[in-house]
Specification:
mainly beta, Phage_tube_2, Tail protein, 7-stranded antiparallel beta sheet
Amino acid sequence: MPQPTFTSFLGIGKETVFGTPAAATAFIPVKTMSPSDKLTLLDDQGMRGSMVDVYDKIAGKIWAEYGFDGDVFPDTLGWALAGLLGDVTTTGASAPFTHAMSTLNSGNGQPPSYTLSDYYTITTRQFAGLKFSEVGLKFSGDGMLTYSAKATSLASAPSTKPTPSYTAVPPLAGWVGAVTIGGVASTFVVDGECTIKRPVTVVQAVDGTQAPYSLWSGPVSVSGKLTLVMEDDAQLTNYLTNAKPSLDINYSQGAGASAVQVKLHMTKAAYTGAEVSRGKDYIELSVDYDALANTTDAGASGGYSPIKVTVQNAVASGTYK
């Protein structure tokens, strides 16, 4: 008997100890969920007098990878961003709370770990020790603000079904956003994207357990693209002169306790490519950029960061991290 796709849901919980499963405390509306356990199979190729090469498959180390995506909800997006960047400072005595997120540079530099609870009718599988490796945001004037997230975790394990409870905050339409380049409002941006990445290395050891010794988060990098109505040569000149303007992608909506915001601030965005396009009835300019590390975008842990993300919502301090 087939099982229904659309009864699936995804929950997340913050771990106190890495790898110790945490119950889901928030539930993320998603469009796709892509769990994948990674079991290493080791070939037994010891020759036994026959014209064959593999006699057995021996189980090696095991871990998992997880991807999900959907429209941006200003409260649930904070989990992936905090898990990727690691430095979170929350201000506000009541809603709306403001969460400033930057690259964590103190201690061992490791962001928090989480447990994802993936329910798919047959059972719930928990992915503990989860570390985020990528969050990408995309926007356009005629669509939604969307995201995709990737993570690495310990191998999945069955668990009991949690009771989901969802945010009442609506997702954000793409046209709501405002883009500022070099401190100047840019009303001619057609679409764009910003991707924050940090590699997660699966560290294997001879330690008597099939699980990895560690899931180790590496350095943060930020890159993206913008498509602009080419009103003048200003942005092409930014590329040709290596100007490195600041770049803000700001989505805010509501007022008072219901106010929400998702803001990406990059103090130094180096254009790595710029291409003039005449494929439409008007001329466009496609720009690629890399955000550069700087002290302005750093958080409470100091050092450098290529980006500072501000998330405003009703989520209280200490929830994401």
